[in-house]
Amino acid sequence: MELKNMVKVREGKYLKTYELNYINKAGKEKVYEIVSHANMEDPSQLGKRVSGMSIAAHRGDKLLLLREFRMGVGRCVYNLCAGMVEEGENIEDAISRELYEETGLKLKRIEKILPPAFAAVSITDIKNQIAFVELEEEGEITDENTSTNEEIRARFYTPQEVKHLLETEEFTSRCQIVAYMFLLEYEKQNTEEIE
């Protein structure tokens, strides 16, 4: 496979669409479409920009999940708190801001921030980071800080509730993995499988 060049074919407010021209294994010229947050001039710039983060948050033995309307699928799905790192902001500040905006909750501590990873390599070069955090014990969930363009219902879920959701509800892939790993960790620490 040989990537020859790229052409921006659409400039949206948040996303740009590119056509990547390449030679496949059979030697034929092909075109592949992607979207990106970045303004790019050539293929060497693909996958260089980290756009935002997803936040796996817990309070004690409960996992924070969002039930969120996502326009791309036209319905509510379970998701993690997430957002963009704004200009001049570091990731730690962005984590605190996004948690507060989407839930009204405050960060107690950041347990781990994973290195940047590609969000969906089949359609984009966008990179995000995943942060694992613990939330303050005090504070009630509120949606008063969300945008009028967001429909988010945040809630803490017990391991038993998470298991049920994993069997019956739709998730974003990142959130589904976090929820499953949360459940496995709980079962490992408690040496019992949840019914």
Description:
This protein is an alpha+beta fold and 195 residues long. The protein has 2 domains: 2-45; 50-190, Nucleoside Triphosphate Pyrophosphohydrolase (Alpha-Beta Complex), CATH 3.90.79. Helices cover 21% and strands 40% of the residues. The protein is built from 3 helices and 11 strands, in the order βββββββαββββαα. It has helices spanning 91-103, 159-168, 173-190; strands at residues 2-11, 16-23, 29-36, 50-59, 62-70, 75-79, 81-84, 107-113, 117-118, 127-135, 152-157. The strands form 2 sheets. Strands 4, 5, 6, 7, 8, 9, 10 and 11 form an 8-stranded mixed β-sheet that branches. Strands 1-2-3 form a 3-stranded antiparallel β-sheet, with no helix packed on it. Strand 4 and strand 5 form a beta hairpin. Helix 2 packs across helix 3 (173-190). The radius of gyration is 19 Å and the shape is globular. The mean pLDDT is 94.
Alpha-carbon distance between the termini?
Answer: 48 Å
CATH architecture grouping of the largest domain:
Alpha-Beta Complex
Q: Return the domain count.
A: 2
Beta-strand share of residues: 35-45%
Query: Which series of helices and strands comes N to C?
Result: EEEEEEEHEEEEHH
Task: Just give the CATH class of the largest domain.
Answer: Alpha Beta
* Rg for CA atoms: 19 Å
Shape: globular
Q: Helical stretch count?
A: 3
